[in-house]
Amino acid sequence: MTDLINARPERMLSVRELFGIDSDLEVPAFSERDDYVPEVDPAYRFNPDVTLAILAGFTRNRRVMVQGLHGTGKSTHIEQVAARLNWPCLRVNLDGHISRLDLVGKDAIVIRDGMQVTEFQEGIVPWSLQRPVALIFDEYDAGRPDVMFVIQRILERDGNFTLLDQNRVIHPHPHFRLFATANTLGLGNLSGLYHGTQVLNHAQIDRWNIVAKLDYLPRQEEIEIVVARVPAKASERGRALIDAMVAVADLTRKGFATGDLSTLMSPRTVITWAENCEIFRDPALAFRLSYLNKCDEAERPLVAEYYQRCFGEELDESWMREASAS
């Protein structure tokens, strides 16, 4: 895809064949890949409802937001759909350091014919708007208010974007697509889990055409993903170990839901635990280093109980004595 601005999807693909979802929907796709297309992860497992929501964004130019707890794979889900469509994709993390100038653009000094001149450098928003790019605003609910109002301009159906400093109106490329991910859906840090998230303007949330919720995978699918990420655990013994690890993770999520725990195990944490098992050759030690030490001290005995229930053995006795003493 040598000329990105003039590129267009050249073919239609069956959702049933591409994602194994029982749907007659066909989605546009590019024939060639370029440097902006994410790499395909063959181990990734797609949530059917969320996949259809994202595909609606690609097919019908809907603004799609994916909401869910950390570690559910929200941004990766969008990227992996784009990867299978060969659709160029850019991901912007709206942390506190992203400014309005980063999104819109700013004047910069450049060298032209051996002389320094001031030239306007487009930000990521106008650059993406003019190309068939899927732009993902990651951690959408952590964006600064001045940054969020810049984004609000392109959430409308027409989505024209005005560069005030340039007296220029940018009309979106017909195959520009916009996505976002969020932990809290703009409600702020009510759970105490996501410090730095903002309460978002409801008028802006209302402009998102589709909001999909992504939960953690069913237990067996999570086991398969962990095994795919850590192939050394593909044996019968390894799978039994991963099964017990995912069982611990399930208990932490239920404990979090009932208010007994303030820190849950995401699938990312389970994968880290499995990887650390390969390093330390001790599931209990790897568990402490991967997850337990992140927990509040008052909650660690309960977490140790979860471990004992799933593994049939106590954690290291010295650690238990330290926990009791504290």
TrEMBL record:
<dbReference type="InterPro" id="IPR027417">
    <property type="entry name" value="P-loop_NTPase"/>
</dbReference>
<dbReference type="InterPro" id="IPR011704">
    <property type="entry name" value="ATPase_dyneun-rel_AAA"/>
</dbReference>
<dbReference type="GO" id="GO:0016887">
    <property type="term" value="F:ATP hydrolysis activity"/>
</dbReference>
<dbReference type="Pfam" id="PF12556">
    <property type="entry name" value="CobS_N"/>
</dbReference>
<dbReference type="Pfam" id="PF07728">
    <property type="entry name" value="AAA_5"/>
</dbReference>
<dbReference type="GO" id="GO:0005524">
    <property type="term" value="F:ATP binding"/>
</dbReference>
<protein>
    <submittedName>
        <fullName>Cobaltochelatase CobS</fullName>
    </submittedName>
</protein>
<feature type="domain" description="ATPase dynein-related AAA">
    <location>
        <begin position="64"/>
        <end position="188"/>
    </location>
</feature>
<feature type="domain" description="Cobaltochelatase subunit CobS N-terminal">
    <location>
        <begin position="5"/>
        <end position="37"/>
    </location>
</feature>
<dbReference type="InterPro" id="IPR050764">
    <property type="entry name" value="CbbQ/NirQ/NorQ/GpvN"/>
</dbReference>
<dbReference type="InterPro" id="IPR025865">
    <property type="entry name" value="CobS_N_dom"/>
</dbReference>
